[in-house]
Write a structure and sequence with these properties.
Strand order of the largest sheet: 2-1-5-4-3
Strand content: 15-25%
Bound molecules: adenosine-5'-diphosphate
CATH superfamily of the largest domain: Histidine kinase-like ATPase, C-terminal domain
Helix content: 40-55%
Structural class: alpha+beta
CATH architecture of the largest domain: 2-Layer Sandwich
Number of strands: 12
Shape: elongated
Length: 426
């Protein structure tokens, strides 16, 4: 009887002990694992004093810690990668073996004016450049870096300009692997470099051409003299005069080229002070006086603005070139040049207007370019180098000003320069 009572009393106690020692810690462990799996910030405690449970709970705590550290590290690396890619001016892509784009930075979007996100699209779909796809394929196959140049011309309906890129393609090797998991492409925009190279090439070609003509003429006449013309007095004199004329031309050319190179190299070092437009113009008129008389020209000054901060020697060259041109290209004697100046806000506008032949409309946008001449032979015969107006433009721009021309063909030309009254500091 007593035993039965004791047994009846012990059954719940045994149940309670079983729950406390095994079931509760197991439920706590289940909750702990679930909390780790769901990445919850506060993991539940496993309530048990039994060693196996406390050990499992401690191990799981370490796993959770490591997981948290790795996640933080990944987030930090992701942030740094995004920051680096976002601040680059180069376009960057990562491409997988089937040539799908896995990553692209903002610079790439801007460079190619992409309208759709490139991620998960193929290289050929996004760039339409078979040579780029072929180079990426080679970088995968040959497992080496490849550099190509890409000429990206706009397609029909696109307004963007032609651009040139240098593209560096590098295979990305996974840790311990031997075949690339991807290819990294870095796009450098080299359009400006190519344009500058073209300008330099054209300049060298022009200079060589300009030198070749007078040198060939001088050489020809020297040969004529050596071949016997020395004894023929009129012929000898004619030869020497021609040689003199063309050596003077060469001199002018060299002077103009030196002027251009000086301006280009010393743009930051103009020797500026406040100077009088009228005084400079008067000096130029004096220098050109023989030509003014010869052409029976009149030069009228109507100067409402006078003092400007400038490099007087350079501005004198500008005025000289503009006035000399007006006299040079006049077809009839008795021509008139009118120089006006007036203040417009913080700028002074100076206009050289002549009643000469003017400039054809199609040539007007080009006359400030180096070596540009409307009538090549006429300009050369008149001693022109095709550099006068380009010097004018360079000097005025070095002063922070601008130049323009207006002309009605047959009814004169008017060259307008605008200069700031004060030069900017620095
Ligand atoms: P150039 O040494 O041949 O004079 P410039 O650069 O000074 O070279 O001028 C470029 C071209 O612009 C000249 O060849 C000429 O045809 C034209 N031009 C310049 N000034 C005048 C002007 N006042 N009237 C008509 N044509 C002009």
């Amino acid at each position: 009887m007593i035993a039965a009572i004791l047994l009846a009393a012990a059954a719940p106690l045994a149940g309670w002990l079983l729950w406390r020692s095994w079931v509760r810690p197991l439920l706590d462990l289940r909750d702990l694992i679930r909390a780790i799996a769901n990445d919850e910030p506060h993991a539940p405690i496993v309530r048990s004093s039994l060693r196996p449970f406390t050990q499992i709970s401690a191990d799981l705590g370490r796993v959770a810690d490591r997981q948290r550290r790795q996640r933080r590290q990944l987030a930090d690396e992701g942030f740094s990668l995004r920051a680096i890619l976002g601040s680059m001016i180069e376009g960057v892509i990562i491409v997988d073996p089937p040539q799908r784009i896995r990553l692209a930075n903002d610079a790439l979007h801007t460079m190619f004016e992409l309208t759709q996100p490139p991620i998960n699209r193929t290289v050929i779909e996004v760039f339409h450049h078979p040579e780029l796809a072929a180079a990426i394929e080679r970088a995968f196959r040959e497992v080496r870096s490849i550099v190509i140049e890409l000429h990206d011309a706009p397609r029909i309906g696109e307004s963007r300009p032609d651009r040139h890129y240098r593209v560096n393609l590098a295979p990305l090797m996974p840790v311990g692997g031997s075949t690339p998991a991807g290819v990294l492409g870095v796009f450098n925009d080299i359009t400006e470099v190519r344009a500058l190279e073209a300008v330099r090439r054209e300049f060298v070609a022009n200079v060589s051409h300009e030198f070749r003509t007078p040198l060939a003429i001088i050489g020809g006449y020297v040969e004529t003299l050596l071949d016997g013309a020395l004894d023929d007095r009129p012929m000898a004199e004619h030869s020497l005069r021609t040689i003199q004329k063309h050596s003077e031309r060469l001199n002018l050319l060299i002077e103009d080229l030196l002027a251009i190179s000086r301006i280009e190299h010393r743009q930051a070092r103009l020797d500026c002070r406040v100077a009088s437009v009228r005084e400079i113009l008067q000096r130029v008129i004096e220098q050109l006086d023989p030509r003014i008389r010869e052409r029976e020209a009149t030069v009228e000054l109507a100067l409402d603005a006078d003092l400007i901060e400038m490099d007087p020697a350079r501005i004198e060259q500008v005025f000289f070139n503009l006035l000399a041109n007006a006299l040079q290209y006049a077809v009839a004697d008795g021509m008139q040049v009118r120089v006006t100046s007036r203040l417009r806000g913080a700028e002074v506008e100076i206009v050289f207007a002549d009643n000469g032949p003017g400039i054809p409309y199609r040539d007007q946008p080009h006359v400030f370019e180096r070596f540009y001449r409307v009538h090549k032979d006429r300009s050369r015969d008149a001693g022109g180098t095709g550099l006068g107006l380009s010097i004018v433009k360079n000097v005025v721009m070095a002063h922070g000003g601008r130049v323009s021309v207006r002309s009605t063909p047959g009814a004169g030309a008017s060259f307008r320069i605008v200069l700031p009254v004060h030069q900017q500091e620095g």
